């Protein structure tokens, strides 16, 4: 099949998320029998949204990002599997120890570790209780198949991150929060190394600023090749580009004793330059690395889950069938290159072995990325976690995700690892030169984030002439390992221009390869990797390559030696165009070869820039050499043939991945020289001593500057900025904590009119030397450049509390650094460096970068996550279905008093607000992403809309379909309002897919003339084309935002129906097309299923599938069709198997799988075929149908073999087209809520077997299973809930089926009860609930508890308006049953207290007594505490009122006698007058103080009451005086200390009317 070809011609690349999840949820197929858990009615519930208290609370407050518990990228609406990372509230052990110390508390590491382990145990117990057993659960009913992914913990973290990685259904994700243990749930992202690092080349300039500029490299000296080999001035191929490193090594500062972990693709630890440095596990023939206990070794392979962290090898690629992916390699080498930069020992017997920055470190490998250089965030965190456990001193992460977020999971792990004592160096990323292109975890506040620069390098050159044109000093791009450039001298070669150098550029007009033997290929840069261009030229036979730039300036890339290379030189765009013109008349003659030394120390154009989002941190922290870095490579890359050959196991590659290990090595040197340094000390040493680069750069491009290894190691002064950052506390909440760093990020400051605004940071200068030092302090402001304003002309001023400072030896001195911004300053960014220079020795200086962003007052921005909102909960849920609940993200530039979001209709009428009242914003932080909860529900205005009043906190309405505007308003303390608006739509309607020519639901038989040429994506293609239009009115209403129909998606499935292969590009007007090429059907049929979705993610899975099948003309095939479009319970359904293009068919047979909600009735010969037989004197005999269990899906499916054979005198088989067999079923169970269905629905195609005349072996032909379908219409509902009762006490291991619970549903108007079942995990199934216009109560009754009652509305509508039953997953909203109704009378009162008190201490493990409320085998204080909590609660249908006394005793008497703490609950009013109220209560036990408090505003405020006599700790009555007549008061007793500590019950007393006599209360 031509699958790749089809994808190439048609598809715009699919979103990365479809690699992770299926667009057809597995629950609608027959994979595994596990419960879908999520509410999925077939159509919208757009009129009612029952908001939970938590949702109401969220709607009326401002949230910070840390309060968003679940990553918005996780689709919690879909039952498809998702990968998540779960962070627990409990901090890792070492982190908690540090945090407690900072808080002035103490906790031992052992105790902290116990808390961590306990959090894991509790979470595992909870997870075990989430899933239902396969044999007890089904998707929607036992009659339908299930295939929901199991809930599985895949990784556990305890050291740098406390939590787990998991796979589970998206609909299960929110349930994890109910454990009470979880603080955040992150997306487990795909991590992929930059292919440009992997293939060693960039299509963009390497050394460039924010614009493509002319090359900064200049010739310092030129030498011949022979001179290079002998000159002491020549920079060696393998020199370490860190000036001063040789001096350190000569002083024995080599990293000895420092443990360095490399988190990467693994390490070829057999490389001669690395083998002695590597101290981790080595694979051997004596043991299987998978059997190794991870606690036995340091390092680990988290991809293969074993002890051997070797790279993905060439042999593994061969074993996998040599898979190919454009521009990428299956086998890896990235980690080995990184390791060589850190620890190369130069032991290989070659001219230029790898020399590492810290050759004597103990090197370890944590393999977190596998084939193709890809992996998951969960594995990266696992690597960080084990590195902390393994007590690494330094870890290097030359990797990351393309997300600028300082608080994603990886960043949190890095921060925690740093707090635990591990120095973490992280590459910044290769997404430059734009701002805010940092990757994560390079965004982590505590990370040492490294950008990339080039460095002085000796590069061979060649000079040549072409006719009268001369080309001097063409720099080498690269050559083969055994190429000698001298062989080119005095030789002439014809020049052939081959465009961009892609594969097709080396073919002639007929598609045949061109022969470039003895010629030079001239290639323009662009589109393809530099390496691929040269390799393609070599394949064509070229003698050499000259490549010219596609922008002004030189190609700043040097690959040195590469396999499959020929000599390749690089020139400027201007020289290339000159050469191209001259080449038409003359050959090229090489006149000489020599070399130049580049200037170096320029920022790499690809190096990612800051700032970090959300906090405007200055990142990267430093830069280091990262362009064309020479280091080790695995042996198999350049020597894949059999045998071991490390002679060419080296390469030059570029990237911040190459810069970061330089800094990791320097960090190791610093730690060897200063073993007492913390990671923060190391960071300060690196940043304080960094140098300027050759050009002027922003601090957000280079941080402190270029690392200076020697000064960093030997510096005896540190300058630290005492800043703040966010991290998790010991309870899992984001809090602001201290950060010691080397830069001053002031963040955002707003302009004050006619005033100066300012911000300050504390700095600490520590003198670690033996002499007093005096420092002068000055400020170096950056000049105006792209993104940066001139501070001097705008009078933005940096000052410190002192311009000079003296620091005694061994002491520290504090400074305050203040930035001042006048109201006249322009808005924008100002930055520079503070220089701290030794007065006596100006050569000793330290620098601290600073930056500030100046804005106007008001609102920086607002943004709705998706301006198209659907309130439909489609059944079945598709993996792209967005939640109707979202957030309005906003950022404030200046402090505000309050904020509010007002919703307007399309005519500009104010409808209401997202909140009941204006929200207090006094404490809302500025310059930070904040969020308002937005939902389909809003608070409508009552009365005059101009007054913006709402009814109350609970009266909401739901927005119907239409266009709206949300106007976000913020008001400051001066009453000045600021506003920003955004259009959005509520769109509940499916998009309309209109076919312009070939309609779906057919099999197309194609001949040569059906293939025509059209253009797609700029390329002409010959195909069978299908044209359509995808239009959505809701999307159309977003035109003011620049959104067109192209934002809708037309997903497609190729030759399957489970995973989407991509989405076809939709044009702005909605036009869309796809084509089938001849090659796609050359070896068999092709199928395409279209699945349309609009901007609001409205899409009806399966029900809105548009199937196509394509075959070569004359191909035999079978199509099943059905006699009904809709099937109801007890209906029959007949499936007709129709033959097409068959030849000489004598018999046919088919194994037909069907779901157990159908009953097989019979199989008959179709009337048309029977007529054919009669007309031709033939006999058609139906084979005896055999019904059996399905071989795969035994719990949900049956299989019947149907067939028939034909006989007759002289009959030589049937040829042609005809309906053949009719197979009839009866629908016996309608609990099927996904509607659309086919027999054998999990298959895209199946085989139909038939026997031809004269042949004994059957022939198979394709049966197109998805061409036709039917819909099952359910008339009954099915509810799944959860058994929640208070005595449960988080005992997730309990068998809930044995607790004696009764569960049922009944109408709110009474009537029949529909009983359900409870499984061992606590899930409730109630089936066969009739359709009704009235809501139902879902009732749970558990011994010793009040009823748990949940009101639900059941029923849905199809897209065509038909009422149907509903499957409802209501587990999360089932109330918890209150414990304490011991006597079962529906109330909790003194009778229950007495009964339980009489059995305190009784034990019975086998037959639980009703008094044993938590069923732990003993009746004790724990059980009684439930009654303390729930006293006087009752069922809504209770027929008795709670009793307060029995035999003269109150409940409090029993509690006090048993020594069980309870608040006073016996407060009563015994008498009252117009000015007094007499109160009584049972005296508190062992109280230290008792007070009477009163309120006259219904409990809003309370004050001390005045009494006739003083109230003492032992008082049991009092008379309150000084009251006003005929007035209502509330009274309560406040007890301090003792058994009854706390607030009593509240009573209301209305004083007497002065015209009436006083009344005595006898109750």
What features would you highlight for this structure?
Immunoglobulin-like, mainly beta, Rossmann fold, single chain, globular, 1563 residues, disordered N terminus
Would you mind describing this structure in some detail?
The protein has 23 helices and 92 strands. Helix 9 packs parallel to helix 15 (656-673) and helix 10 packs parallel to helix 11 (409-419). It has nine domains: 3-14 and 990-1111, Immunoglobulin-like; 68-188, no CATH class; 255-454 and 603-714, Rossmann fold (3-Layer(aba) Sandwich), CATH 3.40.50; 458-597, Glucose Oxidase, domain 1; 743-855, Immunoglobulin-like (Sandwich), CATH 2.60.40; 859-986, Immunoglobulin-like (Sandwich), CATH 2.60.40.2550; 1116-1271, Immunoglobulin-like (Sandwich); 1380-1462, Type 1 dockerin domain; and more. It is mostly beta strands. Mean pLDDT is 88; it is low at 1-49, 132-147 and 200-233. The strands form 20 sheets. Strands 7, 15, 16, 17, 18, 19, 20, 21, 22 and 23 form a ten-stranded mixed β-sheet that branches. Strands 57, 59, 60, 61, 62, 63, 64, 66 and 67 form a nine-stranded mixed β-sheet that branches.
């Amino acid at each position: 099949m031509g699958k790749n070809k089809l994808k190439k011609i048609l598809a715009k690349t699919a979103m990365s998320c479809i690699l992770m999840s299926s667009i057809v949820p597995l629950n609608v197929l027959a994979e595994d029998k596990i419960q879908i858990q999520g509410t999925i009615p077939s159509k919208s519930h757009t009129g009612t949204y029952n908001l939970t208290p938590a949702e109401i609370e969220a709607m009326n407050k401002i949230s910070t990002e840390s309060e968003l518990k679940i990553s918005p990228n996780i689709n919690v609406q879909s039952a498809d599997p998702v990968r998540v990372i779960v962070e627990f509230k409990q901090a890792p052990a070492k982190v908690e120890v540090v945090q407690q110390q900072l808080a002035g508390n103490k906790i031992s590491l052992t105790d902290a570790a116990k808390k961590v382990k306990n959090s894991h145990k509790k979470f595992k117990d909870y997870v075990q209780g989430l899933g239902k057993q396969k044999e007890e659960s089904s998707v929607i009913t036992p009659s339908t198949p299930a295939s929901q992914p199991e809930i599985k913990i895949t990784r556990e973290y305890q050291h740098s991150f406390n939590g787990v990685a998991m796979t589970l259904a998206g609909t299960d994700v929110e349930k994890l929060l109910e454990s009470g243990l979880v603080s955040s749930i992150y997306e487990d992202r795909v991590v992929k190394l930059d292919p440009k690092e992997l293939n060693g080349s960039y299509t963009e300039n390497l050394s460039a600023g924010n614009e493509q500029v002319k090359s900064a490299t200049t010739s310092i000296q030129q030498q011949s090749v022979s001179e290079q080999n002998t000159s002491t001035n020549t920079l060696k191929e393998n020199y370490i580009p860190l000036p001063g490193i040789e001096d350190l090594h000569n002083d024995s500062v080599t990293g000895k004793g420092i443990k360095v972990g490399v988190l990467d693709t693994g390490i070829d630890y057999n490389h001669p330059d690395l083998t002695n440095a590597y101290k981790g596990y080595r694979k051997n023939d004596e043991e299987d690395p998978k059997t190794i206990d991870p606690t036995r070794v340091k390092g680990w392979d988290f991809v293969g889950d074993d002890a051997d962290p070797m790279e993905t090898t060439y042999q593994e690629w061969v074993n996998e069938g040599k898979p190919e992916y454009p521009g990428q390699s299956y086998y890896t080498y990235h980690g080995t290159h990184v390791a060589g930069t850190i620890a190369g020992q130069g032991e290989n017997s070659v001219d230029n072995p790898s020399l590492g920055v810290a050759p004597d470190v103990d090197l370890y490998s944590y393999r977190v990325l596998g084939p193709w250089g890809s992996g998951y965030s969960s594995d990266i965190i696992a690597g960080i976690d084990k590195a902390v456990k393994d007590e690494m001193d330094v870890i290097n992460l030359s990797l990351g995700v393309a997300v600028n977020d300082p608080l994603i999971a990886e960043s949190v792990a890095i921060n925690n690892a740093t707090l635990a004592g591990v120095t973490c160096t992280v590459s910044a990323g290769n997404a430059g030169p734009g701002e805010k292109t940092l990757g994560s975890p390079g965004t982590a506040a505590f990370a040492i984030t490294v950008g990339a620069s080039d460095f002085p390098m000796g590069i061979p050159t060649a000079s040549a002439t072409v006719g009268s044109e001369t080309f001097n000093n063409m720099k080498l791009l690269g050559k083969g390992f055994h190429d000698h450039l001298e062989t080119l001298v005095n030789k002439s070669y014809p020049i052939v221009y081959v465009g961009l150098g892609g594969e097709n550029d080396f073919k002639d007009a007929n598609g045949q390869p061109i022969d470039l033997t003895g010629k030079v290929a001239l290639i323009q840069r662009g589109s393809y990797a530099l390496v691929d261009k040269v390799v393609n030229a070599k394949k064509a036979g070229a003698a050499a390559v000259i490549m010219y730039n596609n922008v002004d300036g030189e190609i700043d890339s040097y690959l040195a030696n590469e396999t499959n290379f020929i000599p390749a030189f690089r020139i400027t765009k201007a020289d290339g165009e000159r050469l191209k013109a001259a080449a038409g008349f003359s050959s090229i003659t090489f006149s000489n070869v020599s070399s130049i030394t580049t200037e170096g120390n320029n920022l790499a154009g690809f190096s990612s820039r800051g700032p970090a989002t959300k906090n405007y941190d200055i990142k990267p922290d430093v830069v280091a050499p990262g362009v064309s870095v020479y280091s080790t490579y695995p042996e198999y890359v350049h020597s894949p043939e059999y045998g071991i050959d490390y002679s060419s196991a080296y390469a030059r590659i570029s990237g911040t991945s190459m810069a970061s290990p330089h800094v990791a090595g320097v960090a190791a040197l610093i730690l060897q020289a200063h073993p007492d340094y913390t990671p923060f000390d190391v960071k300060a040493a690196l940043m304080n001593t960094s140098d300027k680069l050759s050009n002027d750069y922003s601090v957000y491009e280079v941080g402190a500057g270029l690392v200076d290894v020697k000064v960093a190691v030997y510096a005896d002064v540190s300058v630290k900025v005492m800043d703040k950052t966010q991290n998790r506390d010991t309870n899992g909440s984001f809090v602001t904590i201290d950060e010691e760093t080397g830069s001053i990020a002031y963040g955002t400051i707003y302009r004050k009119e006619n005033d100066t605004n300012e911000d300050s940071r504390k700095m600490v200068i520590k003198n670690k030397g033996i002499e007093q030092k005096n420092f002068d302090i000055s400020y170096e402001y950056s000049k105006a450049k792209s993104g940066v304003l001139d501070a001097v002309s705008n009078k933005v001023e940096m000052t410190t509390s002192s311009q000079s400072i003296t620091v005694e030896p061994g002491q520290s001195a504090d400074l305050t650094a203040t930035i001042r911004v006048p109201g006249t300053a322009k808005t924008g960014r100002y930055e520079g460096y503070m220089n701290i220079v030794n007065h006596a020795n100006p050569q000793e200086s330290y620098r601290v970068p600073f930056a500030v962003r100046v804005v106007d007052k008001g609102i920086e921005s607002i943004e709705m996550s998706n301006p198209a909102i659907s309130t439909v909960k489609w059944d079945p849920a598709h993996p792209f279905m967005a939640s109707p609940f979202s957030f309005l993200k906003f950022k404030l530039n200046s402090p505000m008093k309050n904020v509010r979001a007002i919703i307007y209709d399309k005519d500009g009428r104010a409808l209401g607000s997202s909140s009941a009242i204006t929200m207090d914003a006094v404490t809302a932080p500025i310059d930070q992403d904040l969020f308002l909860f937005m939902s389909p529900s809003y608070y409508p205005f009552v009365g005059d809309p101009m007054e913006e009043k709402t009814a109350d906190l609970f009266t909401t309405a739901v927005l119907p379909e239409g266009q709206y505007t949300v106007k976000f308003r913020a008001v400051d303390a001066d009453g000045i309002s600021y506003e920003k608006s955004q259009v959005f739509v509520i769109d509940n309607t499916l998009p309309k897919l209109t076919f312009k020519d070939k309609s779906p639901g057919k099999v197309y038989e194609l001949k040569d003339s059906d293939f025509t040429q059209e253009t797609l994506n700029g390329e002409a293609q010959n195909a069978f084309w299908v044209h359509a239009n995808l239009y959505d009115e809701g999307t159309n209403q977003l035109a003011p935002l620049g959104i067109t129909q192209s934002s809708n998606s037309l997903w497609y499935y190729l030759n399957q129906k489970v995973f989407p292969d991509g989405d076809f590009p939709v044009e702005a007007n909605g036009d869309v097309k796809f084509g089938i090429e001849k090659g796609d059907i050359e070896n068999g049929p092709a199928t395409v299923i279209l699945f349309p979705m609009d901007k609001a993610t409205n899409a009806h899975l399966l029900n809105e599938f548009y199937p196509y099948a394509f075959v070569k003309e004359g191909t035999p095939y079978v199509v099943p069709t059905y006699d009904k479009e809709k099937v109801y319970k007890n209906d029959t359904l007949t499936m007709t198997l129709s033959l097409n293009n068959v030849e000489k068919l004598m018999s046919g047979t088919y194994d037909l799988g069907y779901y157990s909600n159908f009953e097989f009735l019979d199989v008959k010969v179709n009337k048309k075929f029977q007529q054919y037989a009669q007309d031709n004197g033939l006999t058609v005999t139906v084979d005896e149908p055999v019904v059996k269990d399905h071989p795969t899906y035994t719990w949900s499916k049956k299989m019947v073999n149907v067939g028939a054979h034909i006989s007759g005198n002289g009959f030589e088989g049937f040829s042609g087209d005809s309906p053949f067999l009719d197979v009839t079923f009866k629908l016996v169970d309608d609990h099927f809520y996904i509607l659309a269905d086919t027999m054998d629905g999990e298959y895209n195609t199946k085989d139909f077997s038939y026997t031809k005349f004269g042949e004994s072996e059957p022939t198979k032909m394709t049966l197109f299973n998805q061409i036709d379908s039917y819909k099952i219409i359910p008339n009954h509902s099915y509810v799944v809930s959860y058994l929640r009762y208070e005595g449960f006490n988080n005992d997730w291991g309990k068998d809930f089926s044995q607790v004696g619970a009764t569960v049922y549903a009944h109408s709110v108007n009474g009537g029949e009860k529909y009983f359900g079942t409870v499984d061992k995990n606590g899930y409730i199934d109630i089936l066969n609930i009739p359709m009704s216009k009235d809501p139902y109560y879902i009732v749970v009754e558990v011994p010793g508890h009040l009823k748990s009652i949940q009101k639900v509305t059941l029923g849905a509508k199809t897209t065509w308006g038909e009422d149907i039953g509903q499957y409802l997953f209501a587990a999360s909203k089932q109330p918890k049953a209150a414990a304490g109704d011991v006597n079962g009378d529906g109330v909790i009162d003194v009778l229950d207290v007495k009964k339980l008190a009489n059995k305190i201490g009784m034990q019975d493990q086998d037959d639980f007594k009703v008094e044993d409320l938590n069923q732990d085998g003993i009746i004790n204080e724990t059980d009684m505490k439930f009654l303390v909590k729930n006293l006087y609660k009752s069922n809504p249908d209770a027929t008795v009122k709670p009793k307060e006394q029995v035999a003269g005793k109150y409940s409090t008497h029993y509690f006090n006698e048993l020594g069980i703490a309870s608040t006073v609950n016996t407060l009563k009013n015994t008498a009252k007058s117009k000015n007094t109220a007499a109160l009584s209560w049972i005296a508190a036990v062992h109280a230290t103080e008792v007070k009477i408090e009163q309120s006259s505003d219904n409990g809003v405020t309370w004050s001390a009451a005045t009494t006739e006599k003083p109230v003492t700790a032992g008082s049991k009555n009092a008379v309150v005086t000084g009251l006003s007549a005929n007035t209502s008061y509330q009274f309560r007793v406040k007890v301090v200390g003792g058994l009854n500590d706390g607030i009593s019950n509240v009573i209301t007393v209305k004083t007497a009317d002065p015209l009436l006599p006083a009344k005595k209360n006898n109750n």
